Amino acid sequence: MIKLVTILALFICSLVSAQTQYEQGMTKALGLWNEGKVSESTALFERIALVEKDNWLPNYYIALMNSTAAFGVKDKDKMMAMIDKAQTALDVETLKNPNNPELMVVQALINTVWIVFDPMTNGQKYSPKTMELYQKALAIAPENPRVIASKAEFEIGAAAFWGKDTKLMCNEIKRAIPLFENEKLETPFSPKWGLDRAQELLKNCK
Amino acid sequence: MKTIVSFLMLLISIFTFAQTTISGKIVDAKNKPIANANVFIDGTYDGSNSNEMGEFYFETTTTANQTLTVSALTYESIKIAIIIEKYQKQSIVLKSNATELNEVLITAGTIESGGKSRVSVLKPLDILTTAGNPGDIVSAFKTLPGTQIVGESGKLFVRGGEANETQTFIDGVRVAQPYLQTTNNVPTRSTFSPLLFKGTTFSTGGYSAEYGEALSSVLIMNTIDEPDLEKTDIGLMSVGASIGNTKKWKANSLSLNTSYINLKPYQSLLPDNIKWIKPYQSIGGESVFRHRFDRGMLKFYTSYTASNLDVKQDNINYPDQLHLANKNNNLYSNVSYKGGFGNNWNLFAGLSYGNSLNTGLFDIYNFSSTENASNIKLKLSKPISVKVKTNFGVDYLYSNFSETVNNYNSGFNSNILAAFSETDFLFSKNLIAKAGFRFSKNYLLKENSIAPRLALAYKIAKNQQFSLAYGTFGQAPKQDYLKYAKNLQFEKAQHYILSYEYNNDKQIFKAEAYYKSYDNLVKYDTQTPLYNSNYTNNGSGYAKGVELFWRDNKNIRNLEYWVSYSYINTQRDYANFPKTATPSFVADHTLSIVSKYWIPKWRSQIGGTYTFSSGRPFNNPNETAFMNGKTQTYNNLSVNWAYLISPQKILFFSVTNIAGIKNVYGYNYSNTKDSNGIFQSQAIVPTADRFFFVGFFWTLSKDKKTNQLENM
């Protein structure tokens, strides 16, 4: 009897500790990102991704972190290395999950990095692709605040260039804010970023 | 009690684990530390990054046999079997992964456009936004080093070679008739719309063994793999109209575009130097169908153009003007498949068919000609290891040409079978060699040949490299000769190329020196090649030169520009030359400056292209020395302006030769002396001093963001 209890207890313990390991790892990796240690955080996410093969989040964070960090990097080789890292990680998950709107948002971000880096060359090439992605993402997840806000931000950029009114986009951002606030996370590590940025954007909407 | 204790112990041990420290140092082959390497135990989260000193340190709860994995950007990952309890601090050496970013590339003689290649010199957009070439793929390449400005022809003349010494390929397969047929001194255009192509490789010498039947140069164009989105393009131009459409569904996509060009309204408004009976008009279209397989891509490309013109030219030998008329139907179609199979094998298979039908009038002679040409190519490639890659294949070229001039028939049937093989050796991250050969059997000429090719590239610093290329190249004599004479041999050339390249963030500098020798060039003994001329392979020649290229998109915001300069020294004894001389299509010095300036406030791109070339030789029969004349220098400044009315509507203006400089390409002399004992001359000039172009382009797509800026 005691043997049985021991085995049972052992089993439960290992389950508990396995989960803790994932949670600890993710928490630590996200913490490193917060501290601005992108390469350390990327390395840890990579290790997690290798173990958690059925979980799209580690690769998602690698892609998200490296693409956001690549914004404004002036050195082409450095920028390319980051984008490469982001794209490689994202491709792994997009292949498994082509209709995941969160992954689409990150792909759109990567495209935007290319556009910002060299608008004359890449604007024509990536703008339509990016718009197509956002539209597809919005059709799949019409209430996803990150899709709504990122799409609106991208459109505001274009509208500024054409001297067009940004009212429609601002309304979209307004719509996204309560969606951000009431967002129910599927798992503790599901994407939840974007509220700050949306509020920032809204300040410029008048 | 005992069991409870042991149970507790067990629990505690699970929570605390036995922690073992794993540490060491990561270095490269030269014992230099590698920072930011990811070191970890396979299948666990246990690991860390190496620091600036290459040192790493982490704790693991695993035990016994484990695999330690080390990965770092630009290095080959390594897996080491360890026993945790016995692990000792150690140095781990990573081999550099030569195929990663910044690898050394063979670039001698090569100019690339598009693609993500680091050596890309032109961007796809450049083909369209370069002032002076209204959307003609070939003319954008004429602003690059190695090419000659031969305004009366419109074709590519490379490094002292004639236009027929350049072969064109689409998706790997030969295009036998890349140009539209025109007539005497009326420049031609290529038959392809830049809309459908992504990357283009233009090689001015020393190219791969995969390509044959080209003495001087190859132009390799690839159609777009997957269009970005569905759209309809409408263009209204001062010289015609165009419409295009792209559809996508599942793994398939189809692009169609068609255009109608008629110069009549323009000619009536702004008459040029030619008396047109029927100004140039053409109708044409292209289509690309693509299907994506799991491991491959099938493409089906077709283009068709029908054009005609009828003109009376002033000609010194025809007091009543020379009457020329021409109708041309040009069909080209190719199917290609590219894909992987088995263990890392890559297969390419392609088949092309071209038909060109030409009928017309030259003075009082009616002519008609037909050419049917086909190319079948099969190529296999496989990386044997990270350092060695090999490819081999077969190439079959068929051509049937027949011509009738006032009931006199001539023609030929040509079959060429070739086999090629090439291997890349990556000796180190900084040194690569490519060696190969091409064997070719020409059934018409009853001749076999073997052409070796060799290329080397050595990277001397992060952004700088040297390349060397050598090769022998053979080509059957051109149609004009082959239709009358079959007892000829291959014409031959040897290329020696040395090139230096500096490539930094948005800046490229390239310097190239070359020497080229020609042998077995065809000679004949009459004024023009005739059925009864004596043809021999006794000609020869050489070309040598230095070329410079500089492109900068960095220093001035919103400005992109490039400068090309070519110096050439070439002489040949060929065709009907009485002695060795520089041919009339060669100018010693050629300079091009191309710039594009983007003005965000005006939503406009303004472009300018200036081209200069020194005088070209011509033969003056009044002088005893052959080819002793030199034309004046050639100068041309062309400008264009693209204005974005809205995200989907563009207005485009361009003026070719804005200053209206009277350029002279050469001189025609009368065949007989006049009463004063002098051969009278006539200058060969452009069909118009200036050319104006206005276009309105409108794109209809779901996202309302795309436009046709790329079309111009």
Automatic annotation (TrEMBL), chain A:
Organism for this UniProt entry: Flavobacterium cellulosilyticum
Signal sequence region: 1-18
Name of the protein in its database record: Tetratricopeptide repeat protein
Domain of life of the native organism: Bacteria
Signal found in the keyword field: yes
UniProtKB keywords: Signal
From TrEMBL, chain B:
Sorted UniProt keywords: Cell outer membrane, Membrane, Receptor, Signal, TonB box, Transmembrane, Transmembrane beta strand, Transport
Predominant subcellular localization, coarse grouping: membrane
Membrane-related topology note: Multi-pass membrane protein
Keyword Signal: yes
Signal peptide positions (record): 1-18
A Pfam family this chain is assigned to: TonB_dep_Rec_b-barrel
Biological process per Gene Ontology, one example term: siderophore transmembrane transport
Record domain TonB-dependent receptor plug: where: 119-213
Example of a GO MF term: siderophore uptake transmembrane transporter activity
Gene Ontology CC: one annotated term: cell outer membrane
Subcellular localization, as worded in the UniProt entry: Cell outer membrane
Matches recorded under Gene3D superfamilies: Carboxypeptidase-like, regulatory domain, TonB-dependent receptor, beta-barrel domain, TonB-dependent receptor, plug domain
Residue stretches making up the TonB-dependent receptor-like beta-barrel domain: 303-658
TM region(s), chain numbering: none
Stored PANTHER family: HEMOGLOBIN AND HEMOGLOBIN-HAPTOGLOBIN-BINDING PROTEIN 1-RELATED, TONB-DEPENDENT OUTER MEMBRANE RECEPTOR
Similarity section: Belongs to the TonB-dependent receptor family.
Protein name: TonB-dependent receptor
